[in-house]
Specification:
six-stranded parallel β-sheet, Rossmann fold, 10 helices, single chain, 294 residues
C-alpha cells in the first residue's frame, strides 16, 4: 500500500515537471537540459524545504544546516529505492535461516514499509547474521494497538520457523512503541529477549499533533496510550539522536530503566543508514544471542 502511494506520488510529480518543461520550451524557448536541471532543483528543493521546516519545528535551530544534506540523502534513498523495492531489498522472510538461533524482527515506523531496513539488513547479512525477519504494518493510519497485534503474530511465526521461544525486536520510530505495546499488553514480555529502539519517541512527540491518524493521537506527549505502556518490560536499549527532526523534544527518546545511547548529528532517517548505529544494533543482537551474530 505504501509502495503504491509513493509510486503514484512520484509519477504525478514527474508528470508535473514534464508539463512545466514543455511549457518553458514552447513559451520561452528554454532548452530541454535547462528545464531538466530546474526540475531536479525543484525535486530536491521541495524535500529539503520540508526537512528544514521539521528541524525548525523540532526546536533544533539553524544548526540543522549541518545535518540537512545527510538527512536529505537518507530521505531520497529510503523513500524511493527502499520503499519501492521493499520486496526485493527487505524480504519478509530471512535469506539465511538457522534453527535454534534467536530471530530478529524489524519493525518500521510511520508511513513506510520494511524497505527502510534494506541497508541494515544487507550489512547484517554480510556479517553472516541469520534469521532476520520483517513485517509491514497496515493500514498506515491505524492504531498502534492494531500494529502490536500484527507484531505478535509475526513473532510467533518467527519463533516457529527457528524453533525458539523468544525473539529480538528492533524498532525504528513508531516501531519501538508498537513493540513496547506488544510487550506490556499482549504477552510480549514472555517472548522478547531484547528490544532495541532507534529514534522512538517513548514519551511522545509534539510533532504528532494534528496528523489525521490514530497512532498520532496515541503518540502525543502525555497521552493516556503512552501511560499504559508502563508495566512488564524486558531489556531495552534506546538509541537516539539529539538532532532528530521527528522526535520533539529529542530527549523524549530517553526511556527510564533502559540503556540509553545518545548520538549527535544524525537525523531521524539517518539513524537507519548510520554505520555507528549498525555497529550498536549488531552488538545488541550478538549480546542477546550469547555473544555471536550468526
Amino acid at each position: 500500500m505504501i509502495a503504491l502511494a509513493v509510486l503514484v506520488e512520484l509519477l504525478a510529480e514527474l508528470a508535473l515537471y514534464a508539463a512545466a518543461a514543455r511549457w518553458l520550451g514552447e513559451a520561452h524557448g528554454v532548452p530541454l537540459w535547462t528545464s531538466g536541471v530546474l526540475a531536479l532543483g525543484a525535486f530536491l528543493g521541495v524535500r529539503a524545504g520540508l526537512l528544514a521546516l521539521l528541524y525548525l519545528r523540532a526546536g533544533i535551530g539553524r544548526g540543522f544546516l549541518r545535518f540537512l544534506p545527510g538527512e536529505l540523502w537518507a530521505l531520497l534513498v529510503i523513500y524511493t529505492l527502499g520503499l519501492l523495492a521493499q520486496r526485493r531489498l527487505a524480504p519478509r522472510d530471512p535469506v539465511r535461516m538457522a534453527r535454534g538461533v534467536l530471530p530478529v524482527v524489524f519493525v518500521h515506523g510511520i508511513l513506510c514499509n520494511a524497505g527502510v531496513w534494506h541497508r541494515m539488513l544487507a550489512a547484517l547479512a554480510r556479517q553472516g547474521t541469520a534469521n532476520l525477519f520483517t513485517l509491514n504494518l497496515t493500514p498506515p493510519l491505524a492504531s498502534m494497538d492494531r500494529f502490536a497485534r500484527q507484531l505478535a503474530e509475526r513473532v510467533e511465526e518467527a519463533c516457529r520457523a527457528t524453533g525458539t521461544e523468544r525473539a529480538i525486536i528492533v524498532g525504528h520510530s513508531m516501531g519501538g512503541l508498537v513493540a513496547r505495546a506488544w510487550i506490556a499488553r499482549l504477552g510480549g514480555a514472555a517472548r522478547a529477549a531484547r528490544l532495541v529502539t532507534l529514534g522512538s519517541p517513548h514519551r511522545g512527540s509534539l510533532l504528532a499533533r494534528g496528523f489525521p491518524a490514530r497512532w498520532a493521537r496515541e503518540m502525543l506527549c502525555g497521552s493516556e496510550w503512552l501511560a499504559r505502556l508502563a508495566g512488564e518490560t524486558v531489556p531495552i536499549t534506546s538509541i537516539y539522536s539529539r538532532a532528530d527532526e521527528f522526535v520533539a523534544p529529542q530527549e523524549s527518546a530517553r526511556l527510564e530503566g533502559a540503556r540509553n545511547v545518545a548520538l549527535e548529528r544524525l537525523g531521524h532517517l539517518g539513524l537507519l543508514r548510520s554505520e555507528e548505529v549498525l555497529r550498536l544494533v549488531a552488538a545488541e543482537i550478538a549480546s542477546a544471542r550469547g555473544g555471536r551474530l550468526s
